[in-house]
Amino acid sequence: MTQFPTEDLTFTDVGHLPIVKRYANQLNLVDSINTMVKSQMDLSPGLAVLAMVLDTLSGRTPLYRLKDFFQDKDTELLLGSNVEPECFCDHNMGRVLDKLFETGTQKIFSKIAQNAVDAFQIDTQKVHFDTTSISVFGDYDIIDPPFEITYGHSKDKRPDLKQFLLSMLCVDRNIPILGTPKDGNASDKTINNDLLTNISKHMARHRLKPGAFIYVADSAFVTGKNLVKAEKNQVKFLSRLPATFAECSRVIGEAVAADRWIDIGTLVETNSTEKRPAAYYRAFETTVSIQNKDYRQLLITHIMKDLIITSLQEGRVNSCNGTKTFCSHTCCKRDGMLFCYTNIKESLRKLFAEFIQTCSTWHSCRNCNDALIFSR
User: Fold this and answer.
1) Domain range holding 38?
2) In the listed set 106, 131, 157, which residue is the last one of a domain according to the structure?
3) Most buried in the list 43, 225, 290, 373, measured by CB within 10 Å?
4) Per-residue pLDDT tens over the stretch 106-123
5) Are 301 and 312 in contact (CB under 8 A)?
């Protein structure tokens, strides 16, 4: 039997990268970028971006060492063509990044996001907005930067580092369809207001007219200016009513005094266990007035099995004297949900199930007295 010579062969582990390449093909990543970004370089912008994606999803090496990353890789397998590793030198990658910036990174991102929506039939009727901070090392004394890297409120608990913000509009369990960097000290309230100006135009690219989607945001959205702009642009929204509004504590007292809770039940997708029992949800519906306009609000309380009854009894909470104790009982979590356009016909259980699936992640540092606000 003839033995196959192996001394001249190089063996490498490609791991999960062919799967990433397959998804890139489904997103039409390379061709879409090559069509949008005009370049006469031997290394096409689309292949350069795919190379950076593969590198990032493998642990991320510095751009100046990207050629080292592909030194022992089968580029024909991973990129679709035989590209020499030297093509990924820092000079070429820098030129590609300049071309991407000149074309418009948000424009490119939106195109790829639209490809993903079409390829995987992603539901875009419920959009969730949030920001996160990206901490960086160094001074970053840049002349005329596209956004300012500076000190600000650090969401990753590194106030000693400069940062920039990344705002994202996501659909269907946090799949981003719009993303843009912002100044490191930008306010979420201001970013919300800026986004509301163009959100209808952006969602029109996904074939959704004004009023055909629901905008989901955290409590930073709820300001007088944002509510006025949402109404002006026919944006249906879902957000949290902050405890800084007097209406929040008033509704809590009203709900406890009335004691007319609507049973919603459990909404988890996994089975409940003895050590991790499923939360049981109840709601109280009412209206609140903000700047002389009425909104539909739902106050939500969730309980672990029947333990809430014991906790309320121990805290002497009842319809007569429950307001003060209920508001100060830190182990009781309450969420108020605010709706405008009161012709919502879906059942509460279906509504909450859909939104909890859509907005599966929230900042963990929420105020226990904040109220979840849903509006449309």
Assistant:
1) 17-106
2) 106
3) 373
4) 899 989 999 999 999 998
5) no
